[in-house]
Design brief:
Length: about 425
């Protein structure tokens, strides 16, 4: 079995700490420790300013709101909340999800078109399970979400990056990638895209580019998986309407409550064309029987009994202030570098001088009490050594400033060597 270099149970000298090692399925070779996850232990030490993870600032959510929703939920729906539910998720929640999607231009869908999941990571896993045979091609942005890359690898997909510019996916590159894969006799199963405030780059696909990408995918018969956990968290202008708002047959739309409510509730959703939806429900049932009834009812009560739109505005204000603090600090302390200016979401993407390796530099950074996410984790093909993702979602503006100052010391120190 192929062995990952990050598999801690297998030693190169032949010493094998896991007695079951030889029994694992071949696809587990794709299950490697994510660089982001490995960072969590270091970055969570209180003295370290972590610009690494992508955790939302849940403290901006008044506890009282959740307490009230929880109490009401147990009073009104306690018996159902403690019971198994259906594989598609509870209909009352699916109806409220329609209100959320309508904000991004998705109208005309019905609650029956929606499937709830255990976060959108679960949805990514289910969709990959439904479509990918080993070697099938998945196209995605350059760079892209580390968690999706991990899932795709675990199903032995042939993951291929498509270049982006400041308007999102490059159309010629996308077309060329589709044709190249087909010329090699490969099945192109879907395009995975994060059009709003992309993780890790913060880039947003323009309205015109969405139309063009969709038209190309319709012409070429390629399904689009539109992953949109950050869309409502814009800072200045709302993002253009979802790609799904333009077409209901070629787009599988993924949403999540992780960033606008709480990742701890683990509730996400998929809006899918009819045939795929039926398969998705079967896939949910075969993997977890049904998503958590308790958590779905909690989210439903939250949506029905509180001003969730105002709460999203509060989150947006907080993140906007932190984005501004991050950009100002970069200008002040690292003016020689370049970075993206996100109009929403949690991240900016920094280009380092070619001579630097962000992964190798990380131990030095953590010694200086700052953490970031090295660029390489966001590429399936080993690129990204001279990039890093900085997250501004969790630290306060003062801590962001301190973190960037420390980072500047590290970077300038490396350049002097
Ligand atoms: N997609 C993207 C682009 C993400 O950034 C994340 C979380 N960081 C997810 C999906 C997974 O989110 P969830 O908590 O809903 O599983």
């Amino acid at each position: 079995m192929p062995v990952s270099s990050q598999d801690s149970t297998h030693q190169p000298g032949g010493l094998n700490l896991d007695p079951w090692y030889d029994n694992y399925a071949r696809r587990t070779a794709g299950l490697t420790v994510s660089e982001v996850r490995a960072l969590f232990a270091v970055a969570s030490r209180p003295e370290v300013v972590s610009l690494a993870g992508g955790s939302p600032f849940v403290s901006a959510l008044p506890e009282e709101l959740i307490h009230r929703a929880f109490k009401r939920m147990m009073k009104e729906h306690g018996a159902e909340a403690l019971q198994y539910g259906g594989g598609q998720g509870i209909v009352q929640l699916r109806e409220r999800i329609l209100d959320l999607m309508a904000i991004e231009g998705i109208t005309g869908a019905s609650a029956d078109d929606v499937v709830t999941t255990t976060g959108s990571q679960h949805a990514i896993d289910l969709v990959t399970k439904l479509f990918i045979n080993p070697g099938d091609v998945i196209l995605l942005e350059t760079p892209s979400y580390v968690g999706a890359l991990g899932t795709f690898k675990s199903y032995e997909a042939d993951v291929r990056h498509v270049d982006m510019d400041e308007e999102g996916l490059n159309l010629e590159a996308l077309e060329a990638a589709i044709h190249k894969a087909r010329a090699e006799g490969k099945a192109v199963k879907f395009l995975y895209t994060i059009p709003n405030f992309n993780n890790p780059t913060g880039v947003t696909m323009s309205a015109a580019r969405r139309r063009e990408v969709l038209d190309l995918c319709i012409r070429e018969d390629v399904l689009i998986v539109e992953d949109n956990p950050y869309g409502l968290l814009y800072f200045d202008e709302p993002a253009p309407n979802a790609i799904r708002s333009l077409d209901e047959d070629h787009v599988l739309y993924l949403g999540s409550f992780s960033k606008i409510l709480s990742p701890g509730v683990r509730v996400g959703y998929v809006l899918a064309p009819h045939g795929i939806r039926e398969k998705l429900i079967l896939a949910v049932e075969s993997s977890i029987l049904s998503p958590s009834s308790l958590n779905q009812w909690l989210v439903t009560e939250y949506l029905e009994g509180s001003d969730w739109r105002a709460q999203i505005d509060t989150f947006r204000g907080t993140y906007r202030e932190r984005r501004d603090a991050m950009l100002l600090a970069l200008e002040e302390y690292l003016p020689q570098l370049s970075w993206t200016v996100p109009n929403g979401g949690f991240f900016t993407w920094v280009q380092l001088p070619q001579s630097l390796d962000s992964k190798q530099m990380l131990p030095r950074a953590t010694k200086e009490l700052v953490a970031y996410t090295p660029g390489t984790g966001f590429y399936a093909d080993g690129r990204g050594h001279d990039k890093m993702r900085l997250s501004f979602s969790l630290p306060t503006p003062e801590r962001i400033r301190l973190g960037v100052r420390r980072l500047a010391n590290v970077i300038n120190g490396e350049l002097e060597i």
